[in-house]
Design a protein that fits this description.
The chain is α+β, with helices and mostly antiparallel strands and about 190 residues long. About 30% of the residues lie in helices and about 35% in strands. The strands form three sheets. Strands 5, 6, 7, 8, 9 and 10 form a six-stranded antiparallel β-sheet that branches. A three-stranded antiparallel β-sheet has the order 1-2-3. The protein is globular.
Length: about 190
C-alpha cells in the first residue's frame, strides 16, 4: 500500500527489503464511477543505485544519451508491416546516434542486446549503459535490418537540469499526463 504524500519514500517488499523509491500514486474515479486505488509508480532500486553512484562520483545524475527524438510505432503502423520499435523522428547532429549512422525514419528494434518494441523499452535499455559505453544498435531501415555500433554520449547538462527542475504538475490519470510523460522520457533519456 502506498499512502498519500509518500512520494520519495522507500518501497518495501514483503521481506522488508527496499525495492524502489515511490514517485507517485494514482487514485481517482473511473468513467463508470468505480474508485481506483492501489496503483503506484516507483523507480526500481537498481536505477537508484546507479543514481547514487553518479551523485557520489560526479555530484549530479548522469545518463547514457543517444541524441534522438523517437515515438512508438503504433498498431496502425504495425498493421502495415512496420516492426514494433522506437521510430526515429529526429537525429541531433553531433551526438551518438548520428555518429553511429542512425537516420531519421529508422525504427530501433534492439539496443545492446535488449529488444526494443516501444519507447519505454528503449529508455530501460539505455539505463543499462553509462556514457562512453560502446554497444550495438539494430534498426529497421526500408524493410531491412541494419546493425550499427554506437558509443553513447553523456546527457547534456542543460537538458539534465531542465528535466530535473521541471515541476510535476500532472498526475497519472490526469488529462494530458501521457503526452507530458512521453515528452519527459524522450528528453530525459534521449531516447
Amino acid at each position: 500500500a502506498i499512502n498519500s504524500g509518500n512520494s520519495g519514500g522507500p518501497l518495501f517488499n514483503m521481506k522488508g527489503e527496499v525495492v524502489g523509491i515511490t514517485t507517485a500514486k494514482y487514485s481517482g474515479t473511473s468513467s463508470s464511477g468505480a474508485t481506483i486505488e492501489g496503483i503506484g509508480f516507483a523507480i526500481p532500486i537498481d536505477d537508484v543505485y546507479g543514481m547514487l553512484e553518479d551523485l557520489r562520483d560526479y555530484g549530479y545524475i548522469t545518463g547514457a544519451y543517444l541524441g534522438i527524438m523517437v515515438r512508438d510505432v503504433d498498431d496502425i503502423g504495425q498493421s502495415y508491416g512496420l516492426p514494433a520499435g522506437a521510430f526515429v523522428e529526429e537525429v541531433t547532429e553531433g551526438y551518438a546516434a548520428q555518429k553511429a549512422g542512425v537516420l531519421q525514419g529508422d525504427i530501433i528494434v534492439e539496443l545492446g542486446g535488449y529488444k526494443v518494441s516501444c519507447l519505454s523499452d528503449l529508455s530501460r535499455a539505455l539505463r543499462k549503459f553509462r556514457p562512453g559505453d560502446s554497444t550495438s544498435i539494430t534498426v529497421s531501415r526500408n524493410g531491412r535490418q541494419v546493425y550499427l555500433t554506437v558509443v553513447l554520449d553523456e546527457k547534456p547538462q542543460e537538458e539534465l537540469s531542465q528535466s530535473q527542475q521541471e515541476p510535476a504538475i500532472l498526475m497519472p490519470g490526469d488529462e494530458g499526463f501521457e503526452d507530458w510523460y512521453d515528452e519527459f522520457i524522450r528528453r530525459y533519456y534521449g531516447g
